[in-house]
Amino acid sequence: MNQKLKIGDENYPQILQEISDPPELLFYRGNLDALNYKYAIAVVGTRRCSEYGREATRAITKELARAGITIISGLARGIDTVAHETALESGAPTIAILGSPLGDKEIYPQQNVGLAHKIIEAGGLLLSEYKPETPSYASNFPQRNRIVAGLSRGTLVVEAPLKSGARITARLSLEYNRDVYVVPGSVFSRLNEGSHDILKQGAKLVTSARDILEDIPQELLLKRAKAGTVPALLNNEERKVLELIGEADGPLHIDKIIQATKLSANDVAQITTLMVLQDLIKESSPNTFIVIK
Known about the structure:
The protein has helices spanning 14-17, 51-66, 79-89, 113-121, 140-150, 165-175, 193-200, 210-213, 236-247, 254-261, 265-277, and strands spanning 3-6, 25-30, 40-45, 70-73, 94-97, 125-128, 154-158, 179-183, 204-205, 252-253, 281-285, 288-291. The chain has 2 domains: 3-213, Rossmann fold (3-Layer(aba) Sandwich); 223-291, Winged helix-like DNA-binding domain superfamily/Winged helix DNA-binding domain (Arc Repressor Mutant, subunit A), CATH 1.10.10. Helix 2 (51-66) runs parallel beside helix 3 (79-89), helix 5 (140-150) crosses helix 6 (165-175) and helix 9 packs across helix 11 (265-277). It is of the alpha/beta class. The model is unreliable at 224-229 (pLDDT under 50). The protein starts with a strand and ends with a strand. Residues 6-216 form the Smf/DprA SLOG domain. Residues 231-271 form the DprA winged helix domain.
């Protein structure tokens, strides 16, 4: 059942009121407490994404979610879907901003009604400024992108053609003085023409979640569990790295972690960055780690 949130209401997001044209009225389904996040990143991109785009979105979104970042996207096919699904798989709430009404028979695209239910069941939120029975005009979707950008402290772009909603969201984020991050791609693919144009406008190039997490104050990130325990959100690879560092006789260099775990250098770099930000380990010297007791 749709509920309403008016601008000026106690629960209306303050961050959204900072933009030049916030919606006067928002309809929502799900857990309104999902808006009480410490930090949110929007993840946007093309509906017709490549496997490279999917994998980049999964890898970066997973680490952001595990660090306690709320993931915001638009429930569209392609990159949006991957971002929402990855957040849910990582045990993090996610917020979907729709360009259609929120009723099951009105959600666009219809193929993502099941995903919308999963978001709600996991404590996330669906938002729209469109009342029930409003037609889903094409113009609705660029309009809703201002809400995606407005609710987020930063926007991550993965595969944006020159004419795309993702490029519009990035432009709005820059106008709102928010951070914009872009995953680079092939110069021969039209899927990346908009992404590379955004980079020329001053966005930050990112190749891992580390490039985003380093810009976020550590006090806003998910902290570790009690000393001596392993956080439940760590996956098997992350647990393996943590145990390896903890069992070492002294500080352990990243090269030895890579050699012992057989993980890629990029995977180990992302894992160690996440655990540093969660106060599980610290660098005793460059690329050398010890467990925080």
